[in-house]
Amino acid sequence: MTATTSPTYRLDDWQGGHRTQPQEFSYEIEDITGQIPPGLTGTLFRNGPGRLDRGGQRYHHPFDGDGMISQVSFQRGRAFYRNRYVQTQELQAEQRADKILYRGVFGTLKPGGWLNNMFDLRLKNIANTNVIYWGDKLLALWEAAQPYQLDPNNLDTLGLDDLQGTVPSGYGFSAHPRLDPQGLLVNFGVKAGPNSQINLYEFNQNWQLVRQHQHPVNGFAFLHDFILTENYYIFFQNPVNFNPLPYVLGWTGAAQCLQFDPEQPTRILVIPRNGGAVRVFLTDSCFVFHHANGYEQGDELILDSICYRHFPTIDQKTDYQTIDFATLPSGQLKRFRVNLTTHQVTTTLLLERCCEFPQVHPQRVGREYQRVYLGVAADPVANAPLQGIMALDVQTGQQKMWQAGTQGFVSEPVFVSHGEGEDQGWLITFVYNSARQCSDIVILNAADMTAVATLHLKHHIPYGLHGSFTPVLFDS
Fold first, then answer.
1. Residue whose C-alpha is closest to residue 146's, from 168, 128, 130, 131
2. How many other CB atoms are found less than 10 A from the CB of residue 8?
3. Which of 102, 233, 390, 459 has a Cα at 20 to 30 A from 80?
4. What are the residue boundaries of the structural domains of the chain, listed by start?
5. How far is CA 178 from CA 94, 230, 233, 302, 337, in A?
6. What is the rounded distance in angstroms from the CA atom of residue 104 to the CA atom of residue 110?
7. What's the average pLDDT block by block, 10 residues per block, for the chain (476 residues)?
8. Where are the transmembrane segments (predicted)?
């Protein structure tokens, strides 16, 4: 297909980044433009759906794809690349059968029509959303199930990890943990239903549970991410209703049963970290996947989030490869000021340009900050694929942007700090280069948003989701 939805990109160029990568590689990257910073030492881990079809059947949505971990080790100006699939129990079963055996949350159905899908409510742990190294453990995360532990030296799958019984079977552990600058990993899980429950966890670096909370929430809670401040956990409860009947009858995936209600407000849930009841604040109807950051300022909470006008879903009849981006809402960065005394919530648009995957300096998480880094569209207004990385000053509005070109499509930028300043660091992003039909790893100087090195891989990596960096070096 050669349709052009925007002068900034061609749809068929973008489509190439949604091909399955069937191979697993291990090699030193030798084709490099520029120079890897000699001070960049450590390991980048990145997760995302690597397999997007099985037995000749394409998955209905890339979010249903099997998790594949990429690892890039940096040392003395050199880099080593490795990728491995997370060998979940379900992936291994489908490999043996060479066909889809499990329904996907976002609409993938087993072959055989609705009769073969009806009443099959099993969840496939796809382990495809994030990967973190913390407390000597490397964990692949998917929010609806337990994490999978991996060997950080070779990415071998070690098995499910219930974190010393903290996350029992059937419970979720979010793909969006927050690292408190005080040295704690904070995360949550949700048991969603007509009334929901949020489970909150805080771990030290020995994986000892420092705090644990359970809070009931009225209504269905679709919570993908949260904000952590010094004293609060903060969630945006999207105004959605869930009618499970089409899912139960085998017609759709579970996520396609979510119905956005624009007449209902979005509920901001504020939960004290030291214990106490959930406080609820109301704001205009919107849908939020990801938050940039938040902090406390006197009686106010300052919350910066990527907002959509409504839930950007793809129905059962639509092929995501031919999607018209103009029909979907674009994510925009907005600031919410929540007054804890008056209950007033005010909203300010910080960035109109379509954006996603926000990152801040790790020492500014939950603290007052100035700079956020985001993947952005090339077009300043229209919804489109992400083709650039922007540094936005949320106080002055100043923007600095690096662009991948009309044939480049970016993923989440991972911030690697080398100082206390918010611009003292590097941004590492995977870019699908449709001209080569391969992927590049681009390293940007966060201060001026220029590319200091582009590492040209020998193959493509499908569009990914989230990743992290550790100064610990896991070499070849």
1. 168
2. 18
3. 390
4. 11-470
5. 33, 12, 10, 17, 21
6. 9
7. 63 96 98 97 98 96 97 97 98 97 96 96 95 97 96 98 92 95 96 93 96 94 97 97 95 94 97 95 97 98 97 85 90 98 98 98 97 97 96 98 98 97 98 98 98 98 98 85
8. none
Q: Is beta strand 157-160 parallel, antiparallel or unpaired with respect to 148-150? A: antiparallel
Annotated binding site for Fe cation: 176, 224, 290, 466
pTM over 0.70: yes
Nearest Cα to 144, choosing from 157, 159, 128? Answer: 128
Q: Which residues contact 442 (CB under 8 A, 6 or more apart)?
A: 402, 404, 410, 428, 429, 430, 431, 451, 453, 454, 455
CA distance 372 to 413: 11
CA distance 50 to 130: 13
The pLDDT value given to residue 8: 87
CA dihedral 96, 100, 104, 110 (to 10 degrees): -140
Among 188, 192, 210, 284, which residue's Cα sits nearest to residue 247?
Answer: 192
What are the binding residues? 176, 224, 290, 466
CB 413 within 8 A of CB 424: no
Distance of CA 251 to the CA centre of its chain: 27
User: What residues contact 111, with CB distance under 8 A and at least 6 apart?
Assistant: 55, 57, 99, 100
At the top level of CATH, the class of 11-470 is: mainly beta
